[in-house]
Write a structure and sequence with these properties.
By secondary structure, this protein is α+β, with helices and mostly antiparallel strands. It is built from five helices and nine strands. It has one domain: Jelly Rolls (Sandwich). The strands form two sheets. The protein has a six-stranded antiparallel sheet with strand order 1-2-3-9-4-7. Strands 6-5-8 form a three-stranded antiparallel sheet, with no helix packed on it.
Length: 223
């Protein structure tokens, strides 16, 4: 394994094991029962239970639905306990002003979430950013954001750039197939679905701006 980062974190930390715990903790913090969350999302309580206990991975569509309902961002899933702590002196560039640092994330150090439907997300920011989700995405052959009728919608505006493979993006009633170098942007409130439309993995960079515009984001727990 490559050497760890200057912050002392491991060089690669796949946070799958932390995701169920964080989802459950936020649901309980907001005073929402498992059955109530399942009712709001239109899924079975057992499906939510399996996700929260780590026995099942959610699809992209299901994970977006859960974090939106709980007022979370993707960064909340990646967040480490020390994300808000001051950076060690070793993180600062030797040519930077005192107290400043240049947050660089190497390819080997990106934190990742592996989803159920052949999709992998890797965070491209060194620290949590409440306003932007900046993600490296991988869609394996046959991978998609959800089943054919599993469209996603949430607050924000998305920008995507495909680096390899062929990615089919359906936004509302419009369908486009993107190849290497193609980019797209659309309102995330429009139902959308992404899937690998080729015979090789799709890689790309995805940015979601304005996720916190959702009125549920940052809302206090229910009394």
């Amino acid at each position: 394994m490559p050497a760890g980062r200057a912050s002392g974190r491991p060089a690669l930390r796949v946070v799958d094991d932390d995701v169920p715990r964080r989802l459950r903790a936020e649901r309980e913090r907001r005073g929402i029962s498992l059955r109530e969350l399942a009712r709001r999302l239109g899924v079975s309580p057992s499906a939510i239970s399996q996700i929260e206990t780590g026995r099942a991975r959610p699809s992209v569509a299901t994970l977006w639905a859960i974090v939106t309902e709980l007022g979370m961002s993707l960064d909340d899933l990646f967040r480490h306990a020390g994300d808000d702590a001051p950076a060690p002196a070793g993180d600062a560039s030797p040519t930077a002003d005192a107290g400043a640092r240049v947050p660089v994330v190497s390819a080997a150090a990106r934190e990742a979430i592996q989803l159920a439907t052949g999709v992998r997300w890797e965070r491209l920011t060194a620290d949590a950013d409440p306003d932007v989700d900046f993600i490296w995405v991988v869609y394996e052959v046959g991978g998609s954001s959800g089943p054919e009728d599993g469209f996603v919608r949430h607050a924000g505006h998305e920008y995507g750039l495909v680096l390899s493979g062929r990615l089919e993006v359906t936004v509302g009633f419009e369908r486009r197939v993107l190849g290497p170098g193609d980019s797209i942007d659309f309102e995330s409130t429009t139902p959308h679905r992404l899937r690998n439309a080729g015979d090789e993995p799709v890689t790309g960079v995805w940015v979601v701006v304005g996720r916190r515009a959702d009125p549920r984001a940052g809302a206090p727990p229910a009394p």
